[in-house]
Amino acid sequence: QLLRWCRSNSKPFLLLMPNYCCSKPYYESALGDTSDMLYLFPRKRYMYWTPKGLRSREKVQTQHVGAGGNRTSPFVSFWYIDLSPAVAA
User: Fold this and answer.
1) How far apart are CA 85 and CA 79, in angstroms?
2) What is the pLDDT of residues 2-50, one digit of tens each?
3) Which of 5, 11, 16, 37 is the most buried (most CB within 10 A)?
């Protein structure tokens, strides 16, 4: 639904989503023509933080614990970018 809304909104968008989203069947059907999409990925994998107390102790690796919570990197992230409403191809 998010992809469909972004495309129908007729405004540029930048979405940070897992890399596997673009290979899912719903991707092209939600966006239609994807030839104007740009994909950007970071040199290093993004790390995300789970707030303290959200995961049980047995599921937390001690080397990933910090003051703010637990570091995790569950998937490779891509930026999905569409500037076409604002920038002509």
Assistant:
1) 17
2) 999 998 988 999 999 988 899 999 998 998 888 889 999 888 888 777 7
3) 37
